[in-house]
Every structure is written in C-alpha cells, then in structure tokens.
Design goal:
Blueprint: H1 22-39, H2 47-56, E1 60-61, E2 66-67, E3 72-73, E4 79-81, E5 86-87, E6 92-94, E7 99-101, E8 106-107, E9 112-114, E10 116-118, E11 127-129, E12 132-134, E13 139-140, E14 145-146, E15 151-152, E16 157-158, E17 163-164, E18 172-175, E19 180-184
Amino acid sequence: MTDTQLPPEPDRPPEQDSPHALKNRAGRALWAVVYTLLFRPSPKPLHAWRRWLLGLFVARLARTALVYPRARVWAPWNLEMAEFSCLADDVDCYCVRTIRIGAHSTVSQYSYLCGATHDFEKPDHPLVPLPITIGERVWVAADVFVAPGVTIPDGVVVGARSSVFGDLPAWHVCAGTPAKPLKTRSLEGHSPQT
C-alpha cells in the first residue's frame, strides 16, 4: 500500500453503512414529501399549519412558535421551540441531534444550525451528532453559522455573518469568525441575568 491509498474499509453489516437507522431515513423521506408538497408552498401567515405539520413528525413547538415556509428542518423530531421563538425563511436547521430554541429568540434568514460534524481522526469519518441550545431572548442575525454542540445562552445577539464555534457569554453582543463578545447587552425594562 502506498502513502496515498486508504486502508480497506472494514466489513460492516449493511445497516451500518449509514449512520442513520432505517426508521430515521424513512422518516426523513416522508418528511421531505410533506415539506415539498404541504409545508414549503404554504403562505407565510399560516404558522399554525406549519406547526401542525412539524408536530405530526414529533417536533415540540410552543403554540406561538413561528417557522417560516422556506426554513429547512432536517429531522423535525429533533426540533424544540419555546414561546415566540422564530426560524426565519432560508434558515437551514440541520437537527441531527436536538436543537432547542428558547422563548423570544429569533434565528434570522440564511443562518445554518449545524447539528453534526465528522470524526476526521477515523478513516471512515463517522458522523458525530451534537445538540445545539439557543437560550431565551437571543437574536442570531442573518447568515450566521452555529457549530455542533454549541450553547448560545440567554440574551446573546450574534452579529450577521458570524461563525459560532464555542459557547458564548450570556447577555453579550458577539460577532466575528469565530464570534467573540464585543459588549454587554441590556434590554429596556429587563435586567440581564449573569
């Protein structure tokens, strides 16, 4: 074997060729049909309809959660959204593991919530799903990348086009790649809890 060749793949049962069980793949295939035919073409104001569709796939959504029709949810059963939380159009919610979005939090357009990575130290690069937690009163601005396993605590604002690779401090405005705290944040009529 030369330096450029990879070792042969180990023998595996067919089910282990994919990191996802058959039930998971079947659920995502069914969701893709529902998303394409019923979710995506729904008019913007029909949030209750989209919540109901996501609920059929065991998403845990508060009655006031808003999911816009062009938001892409990979596996609805791994999505949790609290009161008045929002996934805007063109958000990619790759929820291989649980993604939780707290009350009064917004994930703005073109943001990517990436709930999995790959173990690059292993020859077959297996998928490593990790949860994402977004606290209460968080604003993830447009075109933000949120890495697997990250917690964005209460009160954080993440500036547009930032990349969040690690946990951030609560009640701060953060921006950059990687996102770093720029200043503390306060809301009129609310005192930050640190």
